[in-house]
Write a structure and sequence with these properties.
801 residues, 11% helix, mainly beta, five-stranded mixed beta sheet, 49 strands
Length: 801
């Protein structure tokens, strides 16, 4: 974690050697409450059944990208909380990406994406992100529509938590609703003894919050009456007026946050009270009150966060370290620290299917960008709540209550007074001071591990193999296998740690034969158990503004959904056309499988025609029963002989000279070759005095979906077993140009025109956003996100015309 905060200590009392109860609590907080949060960017806000969902995830530790976790689970649920699909995402510097492909017969309803790291399961599940996504299907018997019923309630929160006689007190009024919020609302404050004459009135800042100030009188009872634009009202009883207490007043200024504490009719002055400010569960400010006074006022400068934005949690403790009051405030709400992309060139056209480009600066401190380009001509009004990386990072990632359109608090025309009122109505729940003061440390059930890990249990004739030497081969895609000699522990297990294959990989286990013994027909198998795996979702799905109704004959789909369905039809035409072209190319083409295999596996100086080639993929080589590939090769090539070295390994010689050995074109010693399971061999090539490498034997292992024909025939006679392990899910590649020019379509209606979660430039070429227009777009919504090495945030969400 990059700590961007400094600690400002104002010492007004002599220091002591032993830690006080509060100081111990602060140490406990800083050492044991490190927590993460997730932001998930999707390419669209609603989808049609059959659509792909492209997503980019950002995992934060406080306000910086997390280096704690390397694994993120992203899960897709239906409205009944049934798990539809899930992805295991590899995180690099807190960032990862992936995609879901929705089935075409998926019922129309609201679906939910849950995202969390294994480490996050140590803390409250409410802080995991659950994103709402409506999915439409015109063939479903039920249809989604926005609910017209708006059930809501209101609460009033005094600043600092106290309401004291004759003391002007600021209140925040907060609306909460199960699904949606009223469009607008107003309120008034009354004295219950004289309800017909309002003491003061107010108007909501937005759908969430409003504020007012009231000076109470002892013995009076006050109420707030809130009424929405439809006439529905809600009455709130304000707290009973107290005769004594600590009054807290916070005001944000350009240079920092000013606080005033007033002790009213307290038994003794505020001497030895403490003010503690934390950011991200880390101490950022602490002041001890020394003078015999009942009024304290001071300024917390912006330098406590080194100019960064975020929520400051202020807590006031009395002389016995008892929590008296709390207040949340936002640092520099009028000056957000957000960088903008440096655009050096752009070529934007509005013509149908034209090529558009936006070039970013080659010399910027920002090197890796997440970019989304969408058609902005959609008038569809059925859009879910608006959120962006700013609101998730600074607000909703740390608060679990429902906030309507949280992104509005960090927009260009944001109302800072509204954000402050919102924070008055919130409580910081990442930790509880009373629990921390009592001393317990949270139990971490799941530690943050690097990448994935697995536990293997080999079995021979269904019996455990304890303290037994084996060879493991891990192979992912077209990459050469990773060969490891291993040994089971006293319980018969092997542990694979720090596995970061970004796609399914094959695990093969080879039981090493004892010296001078040949393999037999003993049955070898093994099980694989992931040590890092998803956890059950115990929480409730969030309420939404949607409801399902019976399908009507003339169902009216949202504009974006009609476009998405048409895009799916166009894509199918495009795919069918590509298949036909591929079939034409293959027609009449004579195949030479071994030659093709050699060309596929060999490169550069290793690709010579003067060689003996043994093809294990296309031909039966009868290798089963051999100790290893060198044992099998003896006597099969004229001029090649094998001699045993001092450790009993076969060493090849060609025409009297020792031959070089290569495994996947990397020079190795015989011991490495003999440890490769014969079932993993794709090709053997013997080169005699030819080309640049002279006398050599090259062993090539299987790639991708290749399979050895020999092991396909009778694998049961070999002491080997293999299985496919999921690993990390490899993201699909976004099709930059989705419609082939050779395909005749009625209309190109793509909404997502460009998606690149990892846009990079080269040493001399700037990062370029290149996309193809559809048939109608006249303006484009471009979202750009990036972080530099110091975790400064670049965020841009502009319309290009």
């Amino acid at each position: 974690m990059k700590n961007i905060f400094c600690v400002l200590l104002i010492a007004m009392v002599p220091s002591v050697l032993a830690q006080t109860k509060l100081e111990k609590a602060i140490t406990n907080l800083e050492n044991n409450y490190v927590q993460e949060k997730v932001y998930l960017l999707t390419d669209k806000s609603q989808y049609a059944a059959g659509d792909p969902i492209w997503f980019k995830s950002f995992v934060f530790e406080g306000y910086s990208r997390s280096t704690l976790s390397t694994t993120l689970f992203v899960e897709l649920y239906d409205a009944d909380k049934k798990l539809i699909d899930w992805k295991t995402i590899l995180l690099t510097n807190g960032e990862g990406n992936g995609d879901f492909l929705l089935k075409e017969d998926l019922p129309e309803q609201v679906y939910f994406i849950r995202a969390y790291t294994p480490y996050m399961t140590n803390f409250n599940e409410d802080f995991q992100i659950v994103k709402t996504l409506p999915v439409y299907n015109p063939n479903s018997p039920k249809s989604l529509e926005i609910s017209k019923n708006s059930e809501w309630s209101a609460k009033a929160f005094p600043e600092g938590g106290t309401f004291i006689n004759s003391t002007p007190t600021k209140f925040a009024v907060r609306i909460s609703g199960s699904s949606s919020f009223p469009e607008s609302w107003t309120g008034k404050v009354i004295d219950t003894q004289n309800p017909n004459i309002p003491i003061t009135t107010f108007k909501s800042f937005d759908k969430n919050v409003a504020s007012f100030t009231l000076t109470p009188a002892s013995g009076k009872k006050y109420q707030v009456i809130v009424q929405d634009n439809t006439g529905k009202s809600n009455t709130i009883d304000l707290p009973q007026v107290a005769d004594s207490g600590l009054h807290v007043e916070i005001n944000s200024a350009k240079e920092g946050i000013k606080y005033t504490l007033k002790g009213i009719n307290l038994p003794k002055p505020l001497q030895n009270y403490k003010i503690v400010g934390t950011i991200n569960n880390q101490l950022a400010y602490k002041a001890d009150i020394n003078p015999l006074t009942n009024v304290v006022s001071s300024l917390i400068p912006n330098k406590i966060s080194n100019g960064a934005n975020g929520v400051l949690q202020l807590a006031i403790f009395d002389d016995q370290d008892k929590l008296i009051a709390q207040r949340l405030c936002f640092i520099k709400s009028d000056n957000l620290s957000i960088e903008k992309a440096e655009i050096t060139d752009q070529n934007i056209r509005q013509t149908s299917r034209s090529i558009n480009s936006i070039d970013l600066s080659l010399n910027s401190y920002f090197k890796n960008y997440t970019v989304l380009v969408s058609d902005d001509d959609d008038d569809d009004s059925n859009k879910p709540e608006e959120e962006n990386i700013l609101s998730r990072l600074w607000l909703t990632g740390d608060f679990t209550s429902k906030i309507d359109c949280p992104a509005q608090y960090f927009s260009n025309n944001a109302n800072n007074e509204a954000l402050d009122a919102l924070l008055i109505s919130e409580t910081w729940k990442r930790f509880d001071w009373n629990s921390i003061l009592s001393g317990p440390v949270p139990t971490l059930r799941t530690n943050a591990q690097q990448f994935l890990s697995y536990k293997l249990k080999p079995l021979k004739n269904n019996a455990l193999l304890k303290n037994t030497e084996v060879t493991l081969a891990l192979k992912s895609g077209k990459n050469p296998p990773i060969i490891n000699a291993s040994k089971t522990d006293q319980n018969g297990y092997i542990y694979l740690d720090n596995i970061n294959f970004n796609q399914p990989f094959n695990v093969s286990l080879f039981l090493n034969p004892e010296k001078d013994q040949r393999p037999n027909a003993d049955q070898l198998s093994f099980t694989v158990e992931p040590q890092i795996k998803p956890t059950k979702f115990n929480g409730a799905l969030p309420n939404t503004a949607y409801q399902l109704v019976t399908q009507t004959e003339n169902k009216e789909l949202p504009v974006s959904i009609s476009r998405a369905i048409n895009t799916q039809k166009n894509n199918k035409k495009n795919q069918d056309n590509n298949v036909q072209i591929a079939e034409v190319k293959l027609t009449g083409k004579k195949k030479y499988p071994t030659k093709e295999l050699n060309n596929q596996l060999s490169s550069g100086m290793f690709n010579t025609m003067n060689a003996n080639i043994f093809d294990f993929v296309n031909e039966e080589q009868h290798i089963l029963g051999s100790f290893d590939i060198l044992d099998w090769l003896q006597g099969r090539v004229a001029g090649v002989v094998f001699k045993r070295n001092e450790v009993g390994e076969n060493v090849p010689y060609i025409r009297g000279g020792r031959a070089k050995l290569y495994l996947d074109e990397i020079e190795v010693e015989p011991g490495i070759i003999t440890s490769v399971p014969v079932s993993e061999i794709a090709m053997v090539k013997v080169i005699k005095q030819s080309g640049l490498i002279n006398n050599s034997i090259l062993i090539y292992t299987l790639r991708g979906s290749m399979a050895s024909k020999s092991t396909q025939q009778d694998q049961k006679n070999q002491k080997i077993s293999s299985t496919i392990v999921k690993g990390y899910d490899k993201p699909s590649e976004f099709p930059v140009e989705m419609i082939n020019d050779n395909v005749k379509i009625e209309k190109d209606t793509r909404e997502t025109l460009y998606w690149n979660p990892n846009l990079l430039g080269s040493n001399d070429t700037p990062p370029r956003i290149k996309f193809f227009n559809n048939d109608t777009a006249k303006q484009f919504k471009v979202t750009i996100i990036s972080f530099d090495e110091d975790d400064r945030l670049l965020y841009q969400n502009n319309i290009f015309k």
